[in-house]
Amino acid sequence: MSALPADFFGEIDPPQRLLMGPGPANVHPRVLRAMSADVLGQFDPEMTAYMNQTMALYRRVFMTENRWTFLIDGTARAGIEAALASLIEPGARVLILRAGRFGMLLSEIAERLDADIRVIDVEWGQIATLGQIEAGLAAHRPAVFAAIHGDTSTTTAQPLDGVGALCARYGALSYIDATATLGGMPVRTDEWGVDVVSGGLQKCMGGPPGCAPITISDRAAAFIFSRRKVESGIRRDDLADGARPAIRSNYFDLSMIMEYWSEKRLNHHTEATSMLYAARECARVMLQEGLDARFARHEAAGRAMVEGLRAMGLTVYGQDAYRMTNVTGVHIPDGVDGERVRRRMREEHQIEIGSAFGPLAGKIWRIGAMGYNAEPDKVRRTLAALRDVLDGA
Amino acid sequence: MSALPADFFGEIDPPQRLLMGPGPANVHPRVLRAMSADVLGQFDPEMTAYMNQTMALYRRVFMTENRWTFLIDGTARAGIEAALASLIEPGARVLILRAGRFGMLLSEIAERLDADIRVIDVEWGQIATLGQIEAGLAAHRPAVFAAIHGDTSTTTAQPLDGVGALCARYGALSYIDATATLGGMPVRTDEWGVDVVSGGLQKCMGGPPGCAPITISDRAAAFIFSRRKVESGIRRDDLADGARPAIRSNYFDLSMIMEYWSEKRLNHHTEATSMLYAARECARVMLQEGLDARFARHEAAGRAMVEGLRAMGLTVYGQDAYRMTNVTGVHIPDGVDGERVRRRMREEHQIEIGSAFGPLAGKIWRIGAMGYNAEPDKVRRTLAALRDVLDGA
């Protein structure tokens, strides 16, 4: 057995970084305190009351009346996979809007589910018009349409007004990933008319990574409940009864997870209690602030970031009209070593800013102001530090 | 929008229950404190140092030298599914030992993966002998063998000495679920010679639910890395190169998760930072206590529970030789309303004990003494409360 140091690596004692990248951001202290409460048994009436309260709170967060609004135990990516695995049958046609790294992730997951994948590909940093989306729906007649609301890889937010109604008209169920916008920009589930939306806590919700809130329309829930159940045994010959193919995952079988969160309380996993405490407190902080005030705070912080970067002579990436308010891309000036600047920001100023992926790797930094960090003083501190580092670069 | 109460349901403030069911158990205060630290960026050198330390700590916990020892972000069930989804190809033959509810879960997950399922079914509460396991391997020649170490549904621990060598002789990769035993009974990964073992924090590790430690042998890792990669795009025609079928999940693709935990640090999900802090502290607490002392503490608590229940004239379920040390089944006396007793234990004594599933539903209670709760005073308090409630029943 290989040796461990005598102190077993010491206590958890992280440096006090200011996390101004594309997420995670610093966690609201109230959320950290909520997580420090001891756990309860999963069917304790006090625990199931917390679960029901969390459902009610997230209906507000997702701006929806959807009964089925709850948490997936895993990171934001777990929420995406639970949605797609439950909505997509093998061979089903899926139309995916791809305009950045996370759009690519949707098609990667759909491929693993053996979907018949069709895509609307737009250049990174661009958006699709409602006309383009309708043309895709008309041409491909998919069973499922999937898109990203705010793709941090491009700092671009896809407008979604009218998308749900279009999908419904063409008979498609719709899925939206709102990981990077939930809590920071309006996620208008019911107004958009989309069927399933999932998010995370670690960006604008002011929580830690590891929990994926999700909301599901009755229409989508009915579809998911219509898929063949897989009991804890071997049943391979009951497709003749017309049931749809089973969901290929137990952990991501939303029909079972809904039954766990329903009055039936059917045992599935053991709810990740500490993360539920965190999610519940994130929503309480958000609703006490007020949705409009919160979105305005993110917008003001984002605008201050953009203006401050421009005032330094830097070129902001993307289009002002479709910019996410909570993360800003900025071109790395010619001759500047982007990674060296990031390292100096971290080491000299305790500030994290983000690098970029794919076609934008090495070309832009991504600077966030999310959740607890969407504050003028933190924007100013970040801009001042960046100016200091660039002056010395 | 439906109304929320004015106080938004108040702060998280759970009653102080003593959790003596089959898990979750109360969380060690050091672990709760570790989770109250703020998060770090996922590629921050301090964060990746915590990840590497966590790998080293869990090698000790799993009693292994396996390089690939890390965390799955999700509940213990997520660890099970990550292992099976990565080891089982569609159509692959899988031999599953089923002796309780969690053995049934293994076959349910395998069915969703379209495995060719063979089973060794033994009566609930019984174990399979090494001879039965060898006969199954010889008869079915499976690609994968899967079993549960301690199945809380039956409070029975399956002996695993020699199982890994047998599987290797018959060419099977082996998977063991140790959710309910890790941290309480010896999980001798290398001595057993098994390939993949996963666990959870919420039972004997003294942590909250929501994180699944896992360890993977080099042999199993090589197999998993040999499965076809799915890039973020559409590639459906490259099976001709002889690669094995892709893993059907992105979230549970252990090859990608290993690359995230390796020096390559390839981006996958964003690690659930607070749960990693919890997992790391659980392991530190365990290793500072010492493995032998910890196993002895659980054994003493379990023995005290069994003896105390018998001294009250109750009949303990199962066989003494194969009893899990951390959870005890006890028959509900004739004429006693088991659920009413559980409710009175909770309401009058703040103590949770467990009900049972399947063929044991309504027949036994399951009383745990796990992790932070495997202490003589907590066993005595539970026994005294049960005596009090039964005297008044």
From TrEMBL, chains A, B:
Keyword presence, Transferase: yes
Cofactor(s) this protein requires: pyridoxal 5'-phosphate
GO MF, one annotated term: L-serine-pyruvate transaminase activity
Domain of life according to the entry: Bacteria
Ranges of residues in domain Aminotransferase class V: 41-354
Pfam family, one: Aminotran_5
Gene Ontology terms: biological process: glycine biosynthetic process, by transamination of glyoxylate
UniProt-annotated binding residues for substrate: R366
InterPro entries: Aminotrans_V_dom (IPR000192), PyrdxlP-dep_Trfase (IPR015424), PyrdxlP-dep_Trfase_major (IPR015421), PyrdxlP-dep_Trfase_small (IPR015422), SP_NH2Trfase/AEP_transaminase (IPR024169)
Keywords: Aminotransferase, Pyridoxal phosphate, Pyruvate, Transferase
Modified sites of kind N6-(pyridoxal phosphate)lysine: K203
Record family assignment: Belongs to the class-V pyridoxal-phosphate-dependent aminotransferase family.
Record's protein name: Serine--pyruvate aminotransferase
Source organism of the structure: Acidomonas methanolica NBRC 104435
